[in-house]
Amino acid sequence: MAFVNLKKKEVQTKIVYYGPGRGGKTTNLEYIYNKFRSRIKTEMVTIKTHGDRTLFFDFLPFNVGKIRGYDVKIQLYTVPGQVKYDATRRLVLRGVDGIVFVADSMAVRREKNILSLRNLQKNLATFRKSIFKIPIVLQYNKKDLAEQGIPLLSLETLEKDLNSQLKAPSFEASALMGMNVVPTMKKVISMTMASLLMELK
Amino acid sequence: MTYMLGQEQLDAIEQVLLEDLFDVGVNCIFLIDMAGNVIANLDNGEIKHDIYSLAALAAGNFAAVSTMAKIVGEDEFSLLFHKGEKESIHFSKVLTDFLLITIFGKGISLGFLRLKVAEATEKIKKILEPSCAP
Amino acid sequence: MALQKDGTVDFGVEADPEDLFGHGNESLDSVEDTGDPEVTPLTELKSIVLSLDWEITDEIISRFVKEIDKLKDTYRDDEILVSFLGLLDSVGKYIKTHKAKAHPNASKLLNSAYMSLEKVIVSKDITESERNRILASQLKSFKRLMEQIALRKAASDGKKGLKPPDQARVAAQEPKEDQAIQQKEERSPEEAKERQLEPHEGRASPDESLRLAVDELKQLIQEEFKALREELRQLRESKERLT
User: Fold this and answer.
1) What are A66-116's pLDDT values in tens digits?
2) What is the structure's pLDDT at C17?
3) A102 beta partners
């Protein structure tokens, strides 16, 4: 849930990067953290397993500057993608205002993408939120693997599997290379802010 | 769901934190929501904690422990407290959506702190209630 | 055990096998279980004090006061221990009455007074003068707490203006100066009594100091109850005015 502080003229909102395990959610945040290091005054918080898999969440607070006279603070979170961490994903989703669904473009991950999106829908519902109403952007990650000859899902297939009903903005991306990471983030921020402004009217 | 707190409410909350907790020697106090947003915070000037990261972790921690409580058949645990050598942290739920977190040193006993926190929580509830969705 | 004619050995079937291993006369009760903690007269009080460290409720404080009464009877012939228990009783009742409004140092004093009491009781070779010294130190802390309580009460009665949050850090420096001013301006009963006591204390014998301290404790309890009765009366009156 977004918090508007009328005293400090500040808005705080929460954006969660969701998706199947090893899809690139943490990599997205790491790229943003490295790119905007000068603007982000604090360290990125990561709670990981020994195998470098997200255990609880990653967290990155990000000041986007003034919008309509208000300082906008975005809290970026990722969730652990592995199936066994469903309870953890649910609690990190609490109070979410906007979502980036990071899908894995590898052909072998097709099923996992679909299951993860359904899982998101189910977990949002526990907070009485609808996947169709919440600001959401889809990112089809790992496009860089095409150069290595690894079979990837086509944009058409990904859109059909994941976006036929949602009709959300989507980006082909490579979090590792930094391709479309920032545009994805900007899109979700602007959608979240627009939704917030609508709600406040 | 978005909620707003006005100047008067935030001033009133800060007053409660100041009088009931800060004045009895608590080093750092912050009120957050369950999404990890910081609503109010007070510290003794010597502390340079990263409040935003603490808030995110506190919300996650509290949520994780609450989930564990439900798994073992409890509605919720009545005490969430981490004891350190020099500093300890106490969590207290305020209504359903907020958390009051106090960081205190050896100068205060946990028992006494819990009394003060209970008192402060009641006052903060009354300030927050008008802003919360029914 | 006897050698039989046929060459076999009779182990004496009728005999208790335990006897064969020499265990027959030992009682299991006398076997020391090193895991058992030593039970002292303070065990119950210690457990209550530890509980209070975690949670202050009416039930636990009542148990505390009851246990103190019991120990006062146990140690009635030992003036020093009775004084300790009187001090603990006083602080306990203060916390019971005031709860969240109690001075934060009251809990600290409760713990430190208990630790000192335990030391005085448990230490085997402690001298009488050392016992007196420990008690005197706790009484000093007790007096300090009373002063702090009196100052705080005087400050709140004076309806001191509240400081805004961003001056909290500056405010932390001010109380010492305010206290000095308050001390000159306001004379609390506790302070007045202390001023009366001061000329004598330096020349008083240990026994006399003890007696004075006990008298002071009694005085404090009476004053606290008097203040409480007054507050209740005012509360009743304001309720009557409203109805």
Assistant:
1) 888 889 999 999 999 888 888 889 989 999 999 999 999 999 999 999 999
2) 40
3) A139
Torsions phi, psi for C166 (to 5 deg): -75, 0
Q: Are A45 and A76 in contact (CB under 8 A)?
A: no
Which member of B24, B42, B115 has the closest CB to residue C165? B42
Chains in contact with chain B (at least 3 beta-carbon pairs closer than 8 A) = A, C
Please give the sequence-ordered ranges of beta strands (E in DSSP) within chain B, or none if there are none: 3-5, 28-33, 38-43, 80-82, 88-94, 98-104
Count of Cβ atoms closer than 10 Å to residue A48 Cβ? 14
ipTM, two decimals, is 0.80
Strand locations in chain A, DSSP E? Answer: 3-5, 10-18, 45-48, 54-67, 70-78, 98-104, 136-141, 170-172
Query: How many interface pairs between A and B have CB atoms less than 8 angstroms apart?
Result: 91
Q: Six-digit token pair at B31?
A: 């009120």
B-chain residue closest to C95, CA distance: B112
Cβ contact B63–A94 (<8 Å) = yes
C112 touching B, CB under 8 A? no
Is pLDDT above 90 for B92?
A: yes
**Does the CB of B7 have a partner CB in chain A at under 8 Å?**
yes
Q: Sorting pLDDT into bands at 50, 70 and 90, what band is C167?
A: very low
User: Any chain C CB within 8 A of the CB of B15?
Assistant: yes
Which of C104, C164, C168 shows the shortest C-beta gap to B112? C104
The pLDDT value given to residue A169: 97
What sign for the dihedral angle of Cα B94, B98, B99, B100? Answer: negative
Contact B112 C168 (CB under 8 A): no
Partner-chain residue, chosen from B6, B7, B60, that has the shortest CB–CB distance to A57: B60
**Interface contact flag, C52 B110, Cβ < 8 Å:** no
Burial class (CB in 10 A: 0-12, 13-18, 19+), A47: middle
The whole-model pTM stands at 0.70
Low-confidence ranges of chain A (pLDDT < 50): none
Tokens of A144: 């860089």
pLDDT-based confidence at residue B120 (cuts at 50, 70, 90): very high
Contact between chains at A3 and B53 (C-beta distance less than 8 A)? no
Q: What is the CATH number of domain B7-127?
A: 3.30.450.30
Point out the least confidently predicted range of B63-67, B120-124, C80-84, C204-208.
Answer: C204-208
Query: Is B48's pLDDT higher than 90?
Result: no
Alpha carbon of A91: minimum distance to chain B alpha carbons (Å): 6
- Whole-angstrom CA distances from A79 to A17, A87, A91, A117, A126 are 7, 10, 9, 13, 16
User: Which amino acid makes up residue A54?
Assistant: T
> Can chain A be said to touch chain B, i.e. do they have 3 or more Cβ pairs within 8 angstroms?
yes
Are B64 and A94 within 8 A, CB to CB? no
- The answer to whether residues A138 and A163 touch, using CB atoms and an 8 Å cutoff, is yes
